[in-house]
Amino acid sequence: MIAAVLAGGKAKRFGEEKLLYKVSGKPLILHAIESVLKAEGIDEAVIVTSREKKEVFEELGFKVIVDELEIGPAGGVYTALRKLGDVFVIAGDMPSIKPKFVDYIIKRFYELRPLACVPKWENGYLEPLHAAYSKNFLKILEEQITKGRYMLNEAIRLSNSCYIEIEPLPKEWRESFFNVNTKSDLRKIRGSSRV
Ligand SMILES: Nc1nc2c(ncn2[C@@H]2O[C@H](COP(=O)(O)OP(=O)(O)OP(=O)(O)O)[C@@H](O)[C@H]2O)c(=O)[nH]1
Ligand SMILES: [Mg+2]
What we know:
alpha/beta, Spore Coat Polysaccharide Biosynthesis Protein SpsA, Chain A, 7-stranded mixed beta sheet, two-stranded antiparallel sheet, globular, binds guanosine-5'-triphosphate, binds magnesium ion
């Protein structure tokens, strides 16, 4: 399966291009890409970003596809499904991806063949940016986007999705969801074993 690495967005909370910000000597997004590529079920990583950032991300040596919508992560997933087919989606700002967790989700995805296979917390909160999507999810996503409804969670709940309960899984897998939104989030990774 291809990993679609979302890399559009404005990084307003961070204040500059966070995905190229060097963490332990390399761009934040490379931590995410290198980790997801360690999953056995992932053969390739493709970066999904806006037209203006295409070239800078190409310099990292990975295939880049352009998200023309710029409506947030839902547009990135839409672009990935249209251009790549089934994908495992991650956010480029997730430096602590656990390859075993990715493989666990991919395995369930191939067993159950849902439209999406998404981790879910006990309180109902979903983790849609660490999830497997079928190309058949495109139809409902497109309908939702056409209506101006850009919440991925909503499209997932309207679909025949498989939910992965997070609480019973190994606790350290939860680090996989950690994402860098502010400069102070960097303190949480520096000096720790996260990356
Ligand atoms: N392809 C694509 N990716 C996006 C888009 N918006 C956000 N992303 C990515 O989705 C992931 C989660 O984004 P957030 O951290 O919520 O948002 P952000 O825009 O990067 O930052 P803020 O402006 O601080 O909210 C990040 O990896 C972003 O790069 C978009 O419109 N298109
Ligand atoms: Mg984020």
